[in-house]
Amino acid sequence: MLSATIWVPLIGAVLLAAWRDASPRGLRIAAVLIASIPLVLLVVAWVRFDAAADAPLFQLVEELRWISTLGVAWRLGVDGIALAVASVSALVFVAAVAYPPPNSASDEGRLRHYYAWLLFLDGISLGVFLALDLLLFYVFFDLSLVGMYFLIGRFGHGEDARRAALKFFIYTLGGSLAMLLGIIGLVLATDPLTFDMRTLIAAQPLSGGGTYAGLVLLGLILGLGIKTPIVPFHTWLPPAHVDAPGPASAILAGVLLKMGTYGLVRLPFSMLRETFAHYALPLAIVAVVSIVYGALVAWGQTNLKRRIAYTSVNHMGYVVLGIAAAAGLSGQASARAVALTGATFEMVAHALITGALFLIAGAFWQRGGEYELRAYGGLARRAPRLTGLTVLAAFASLGLPGLAGFVAEFQVFAGAFAVYPWLAAIALLGILITAALFLQMLQLLFFGELPARWSGFADLGWSETLVLCGLLLLVVVLGVYPGWALTVIGATATRLVAG
Amino acid sequence: MLWLLPLTAMLAAVLALGLRGRIALAAWGTAAMLAALGESAAAVLGDWSGQWGFGPAITLHARLAPASDVLVCLVPAVALPVVLFAAMHEARAGLTRLVALLLFFAGAMQLLVVADDLLTLLIGWELVGACSWALIAHDWRALENPRSATLALLVTRFGDLGLFLAAMTTFAATGSFAFEAIGTLHGWPLHLVAAGLLLAAAAKSAQLPFSFWLFRAMAGPSSVSALLHAATMVAAGAYLLVRLQPVLAGVGWVAPTVIGIGLATAVGGGLVAVFQPHVKRLLAASTSAHYGLMWVAVGAGYPLVALLHLVVHASFKALLFLSAGLAASAGGSALLADLGLGRRLPRLALLSLIGTLALAGVPPLAGAWSKELIGAAAEQWSPWLAAGVLLVGALSGCYAARWQWQVFGPSGGEGGELHARPGRGAMAAVTLLAVETLALSLLLAPPVRDWLAAGPDASAGSGLASALPSETLWMTRATLLALGVGLYAARWLVASRPRLGERDADGALADWLGLPTLVDTAVSRPLARLATAAARFDDAVLDAIPTGIARLGRWSVGVTARGIERVMDGAAEGAAWLTDGAGRDLRHLETGLAHHYLFWIAAGAVGMAAFVLLGA
Fold it and tell me: Which member of B55, B127, B140 has the closest CB to residue A483?
């Protein structure tokens, strides 16, 4: 079943690319249908998942022989964390595919390729989250770069789209090479050789510590940290976002960034437990820098998309703080499990909220061809639906209770405080600065006088409204009744923390 | 079950979004608040409680403590007339949104009040703050209003960080968020929790140094001010102190700090109010001052007294804000000196008089009784504190009299036609609040109060009696004397300086003693500059590192290429020759015959399979 979630969109991508005489409408409907299949399959997986304490950690496992001498195989499976992140990724893909395509993909041939690349990236991304084999993980991780490179480079706007795409590609490729070295270093310590994540987690191959283990950890964290991104490796993110079309931006923020933090949980956190715990404090410090600095720089941006992009740096900082705290040496196991649960929940919440925000930014570009905040104003008059949904998304992003972001951030703070009280207290400043930057953003976009040039500004169309409502409805549901998701995530988090 | 209280109002808010028209909104809002009131009474009598699983490690708890018993009933009792007023009187633009938000505001406050743990409290606390943002920014067409809303939310959210900190500390130390768990803390976590709670309460209750946000909150319609000052938002801070006073009392420095902040705000707010020329801002400054008095009562160890004053203040302050809104729209100006509507609006003037007398603390109105109790509580702490409370009493007498005299006095204004006549629905709302004020006056009058305190149940009654300070004759007389001085000063002030506070010199005094300017230059602007600088640093320095590395790479490639150009050139030419030959050979394969192609495809497949098998 999990294999199908990967192969259906990949095959769908090939079919769409070959479908020559399709109408734009037909293409869009077909793409939405294909992208919905993995989502439905993952919902089924969610129902079948057993969160009991004595159930196996990885469930719904599928295994196919591949390169036996190297211990490589087609291995898929999920724990609570992978399931949550994969499901939300599948949902973000459905939203991105269903959203109106960017103007740059308007002519027929390009539209076909646009949907094909989206579906290709869909299958590849789900592969990252479902893989139980390190080599498979690495292959999917790298292929995701290819998909995103073409989405930004071919369908991006602005004169710099190619350049931004190349910067994104080379920067993150450099990161994944560091990760590859780390993976090889880790696997070489196993005997017999295996890329099986379950074996690696159980065996803890480099548990002695030492320089070698430290270097392996460094490679992994560098690679995953660039993808996350953590300060100071984040500068590829804003240009990539600014030039990417709205739906691709939503995927970049909602899905691709999660590969970094999900990888942190899956690889170093689980497989190098002792070494990771040893270096958890520096990582937590970097996370707090990302939180405060990311928020501050976001506040200093005058460009809508750059501002949202930098809030991603801030939010991913919460995730990394939660992961580092969960690995910390001090603090009760229950509090550390709360931190890891919060970090995972933040991945889900950020995917939905920031995904929605980038789709909204796309709507601005489609209508105004402009991201400068000060160019807008008074739009509440013309576009009440856009205003209402943006206000909701902004408040979700600044962590208003009753919405998903709060549940996540609060758990990260509460759990991290038990381990690193000072760092958690400093990190609190992040929610104040994000409040400032989002409120100012709303003010500049929607309130006050309406400039004459926007007197014809159109409100959201029905498909845009529907997609955004869908994402934000889930944000509300997860904020009011997070229990159903937290039970599944928490069960896994408790076991990972206990080791 | 207890969740029903907040949910009723919140759900009513969501459903109200589908309604249009004044009558429909007024009926729906009134009905919702009546239902909430009935549920609150049932909850108090039936001792309801509630639990909500938030996840495997976290559960939300709701339970009614004695202080929350009072508040859950107060919130809908004040919100009902306010919502009625809003639906019948406020501008038509965005009226549905306004009514829905007011209902949601009341619901969020109910959530805050029923909370029995820090997390539930925090959820209600932040929702109340967000609602007030949306309500202050209600008329978003004038950019000044959303700006004011943003400032109000940021100041109060800064205080919210204290609540976050308190909740995190309690959870880290005990594994629970429950209020009871705070009592089991000791050492630095307890101090941290106390400091966090005080910070949160001070910001919400508009105590010094945060008082100025309340002036900015005046950007909202007057119904918003009425609810925000009386039963929600600002009330939350004082409620938190009252609710957690038993826990906080164990920390030595808390009581003096609470008293210090409270007294400073009460005196400062009183002075600011005396100088304020603006009909709503005068009331706003007086709100800070009255909450300051509640802080004093809590610090002196009498939370029940603070709670009584909270309830009394809620009824008369809501009354006064609604009446201020009506007066300002009738007179066409928000400046005290321009009004003088008494002859033209005699009924409204009379109803307002009930409110101002209560605000000044003139017996037999409720404000007098609760203020006397605060004086008595202060006297038990120290005579100096009592003297401070007397000063506050004199100030409130002065500004209350100034307000009533200038707004509804015979003089001032040009006379002539009214800009707008108060409608029947709005007057009904004002009357309702006046009746509530009178009823409270009766309930709190010393004979009735003593009878109630003795109570049918002797054991419970004695507990209640000991929660009230015993009054001394000396203090009662001194309070009346101070009030007299205040009223006399007001008479002089109105006669000789009717436009006090309108010019620059005393205007700064009237604008919270220059506090907003100080915060703007010392905090807001530097922070905004820091953000811009950080953004520039990010582009100029952090991004330069990878860009520099990329350039270095390109440069080294260039050097290498030039250095071994010849070798490379030769190699390239050789490769070209080779490719040429291979191409010629390959052309032979392009036979155009399908079976040839098939053969090569099959061969390729076999080759790949062999490769994989050998690897395996």
Answer: B55
Spatial separation of the C-alpha atoms in residues B244 and A369, rounded to whole Å:
54
Minimal CA–CA distance to B172: which of A428, A338, A58, A367?
A338
> Predicted ipTM?
0.93
Query: Which chain A residues are closer than 8 Å to B149 by Cβ?
Result: 439
Nearest to A443 among B146, B157, B535 (CB): B146
| HSE, side-chain direction, 13 A CA sphere, residue A236 | 28
* Structure-token pair, residue B270: 């009183």
Backbone φ and ψ of B186, nearest 5°: -155, 165
What stretches of A244-332 show up as alpha helix (H) in DSSP? 246-251, 257-264, 270-271, 273-278, 280-299, 304-327
Q: Answer yes or no: are the C-beta atoms of B319 and B433 closer than 8 Å.
A: yes
Q: Most distant CA pair in chain B: distance in Å?
A: 121
Distance of CA B2 to the CA centre of its chain: 23
Alpha helices by DSSP H, B205-253: 213-216, 222-230, 234-248
Cβ of B171 within 8 Å of Cβ of A436? The answer is no
pTM of the model: 0.91
| Tens-binned pLDDT, residue by residue, of chain A (499 aa) | 899 999 999 999 999 988 888 888 899 999 999 999 999 999 999 999 998 888 899 999 999 998 888 889 999 999 999 999 999 999 999 999 999 998 877 776 788 999 999 999 999 999 999 999 999 999 999 999 999 999 988 888 867 788 888 888 888 888 889 999 999 999 998 888 899 999 999 988 888 778 899 999 999 999 999 999 998 899 889 988 988 999 999 999 999 999 999 999 999 999 999 999 999 999 999 999 999 999 999 999 999 999 999 999 999 999 999 999 999 888 888 899 999 999 999 999 999 999 999 999 999 999 988 899 999 999 999 999 999 999 999 999 999 999 999 999 999 999 999 999 999 999 999 999 999 999 999 999 999 999 999 999 999 999 999 999 999 999 999 999 999 999 999 999 999 998 7
For residue A435, list chain B residues with Cβ-Cβ distance below 8 A. Answer: 153-154, 157
